[in-house]
Amino acid sequence: MINNCHINMSGMYKNRFDSMLAKVSKYYPDKNGSITASWVVSGNKYCCKNDLLIIGRAPIGPINSITINWLPSEASNKNKRSQIIGLIRAKAEDRSKCPMSWVIKYGHDNPICNTNKSAFWRVSKKIVQRRLVNYSGRNWSNYIAWSNLYKIVSADGGNPSRTLKKIQLNDCVELLRIELNLLNPNNILIMAGETWYQPFIERLDIKVIDSPGCFIEKIGQYKNCRIIFTQHPQSRRENYIDTIMEALRG
Questions:
Q1: Distance CA 234, CA 12 (A)
Q2: How crowded is the C-beta side of 66, counted as CA atoms within 13 Å?
Q3: Domain total of the chain
Q4: Beta bridge partners of 152
Q5: Residue 103, domain extent
Q6: Distances (CA, A) of 132 to 126, 127, 143
Q7: What is the pLDDT of residues 44-62, one digit of tens each?
Q8: Is residue 151 in some structural domain?
Q9: Domain assignment of residue 136, yes or no
Q10: How buried is 122 (Cβ within 10 angstroms: 0-12 exposed, 13-18 middle, 19+ buried)?
Q11: HEC profile for the chain?
């Protein structure tokens, strides 16, 4: 288990991210508009008191407090891709403040995003606070790592189209593999729904050990990582926190 909270992604991750941007630039036409992307982020206290990686479908709203938009064709140039990756990575790995602090920063009425109105972040907050013994502070997001199954979305918001998902899928699988191997969490919570996570289960050879049904759809194992697969919490009653807590290891 990694004890250093300041986790930065490897060169292998950067190279795979570059491959993904190049592929999207080739097969996703500019007529669909500008796109943006997210990098995996670990809070400053991740691994110190909590080892939970939380994964969503795709980035929506502010990405680490910064949004970098570009037309797909712009990333056909390697120097441009390097510039894009540098800007995204710099914000995600900036340790001058916790790179996960944006979740709390946007937890109020805000023209960009309100994470308190996001079922994904409300559920995440409740779970983290329950896992932290004698926790009395408000910086709960510092204790987790966060990623998304799909990294690239339309800059206009919303989830990626079927076409955009297909183009980036193989690279996203390999990016997730690197994330799991480097972050090495005991627990992973993927709140996305079966149609979103199933392609990743198959390609990562994740062993499904239980299928409880209802909100928790599957429980899987990847090396030392226990993975809880759930429905997406949007528009569902948030009365399943106890069930998730029971499924998480330790």
A1: 34
A2: 15
A3: 1
A4: 37
A5: 11-247
A6: 10, 9, 9
A7: 888 755 589 999 999 875 5
A8: yes
A9: yes
A10: middle
A11: CCCCCCCCCCHHHHHHHHHHHHHHHHHCCHHHCCEEECCCEECCCECCCECEEEEECCCCCCCCCCCCCECHHHHHCHHHHHHHHHHHHHHHCCCCCCCCCHHHHCCCCCCCCCHHHCHHHHHHHHHHHHHCCCCCCCCHHHHEEEEECCCEEECCCCCCCHHHHHHHHHHHHHHHHHHHHHHCCCEEEEECCHHHHHHHHHHHCCEEEECCECCEEEEEEECCEEEEEECCCCCCCCCCHHHHHHHCCC
| Count of C-beta atoms within a 10 Å radius of residue 58 | 22
- Flag whether 1 is in a domain: no
CATH code for the domain of 137: 3.40.470
pLDDT tens string 187-223: 999 999 999 999 999 999 899 999 988 889 999 999 9
pTM greater than 0.70 (yes/no): yes
